[in-house]
Amino acid sequence: MDFTDLIDLASERLGGAVLVANDEFFAPKENLLKPSQPIFIEGKYTDLGKWMDGWESRRRRTPGFDWCILRLGLPGIIRGIVVDTSFFRGNYPEQCSLEACAVAGLPDVVELSSGATEWTEILPLSQLKGDSLNPFAVNNDRRFTHLRFKIYPDGGVARLRVYGEVVPDWDEIRRNGGQVDLAAVENGGLVLSCSDMFFGHRHNLIMPGRALNMSDGWETKRRRGPGYDWVIIKLGAVGNIKRVEVDTAWFKGNFPDSCSLESSGAAANDPEFGWHSVLAQTRLQAHTRHFFAAELSDVGPASHVRFSIFPDGGVSRLRLYGTLVDQSRNGAA
User: Which of 154, 159, 161 is nearest to 25 (CA)?
Assistant: First the structure.
């Protein structure tokens, strides 16, 4: 799959943050991780100069480069990045590079900036184009928590997207015991495919928290023929599903009539990748959190699920709470 189909590990909505920058004279560092697409407003200026929707440092008059340190919202393996220089035409950096580290807990800027932190270069010095999406594949299978982004020699970058695979600390989760949301993005879940996502992206289903509005969910177009819509989700780890939540928040005139859930143990030694019914087709209501437990069938360990909605519509969140089986995180997709 194209790495941009993966999760943006640095996303602000997942807890990503730009912790520090050596210079942000013209535009603040926080803009780098804004979820919205960058914009340009003709004629808008601040006391410091032209207003720009990105991170922009002043013109460098001495040797060196500018940099910032980011905390990933979710730790994981980075497969690629996109350096978006939209609207930076005469003021974009000529080159960039990226380093990464893995530090437990919540280290502060002093610790991350000290010589004790081991940084690994995952993107060597690379050329950038102005007013462009600059994609770069990353070939490193290590789990990282923080990034150091360098621009040479100075200038502005609108957005930085960091795509990869979430790698939770499963040992800590096991030590804590109890059920976990096996499908949650923060636990390594990934929506692999779907029948349609005309109005809302499939990844919204497994994002943290409740939806902010109707755009913050998975929504398909109106179906004019037979059939139904569906998504296939790879669980973060193999587990037994004990409780399901289907949240139709904000979907009032466009919620599905009903839904169903099937599971497969493909990564749990099920060579046929067969689908088994966990929740039979069940009616849904508008703008409601639906919880199912007694209605679920115990079909054994699951590594993937197929969630179907009939005939179409929108669902804001899907939670699949369960217990881990005695297997390590499986990377099959």
Answer: 154
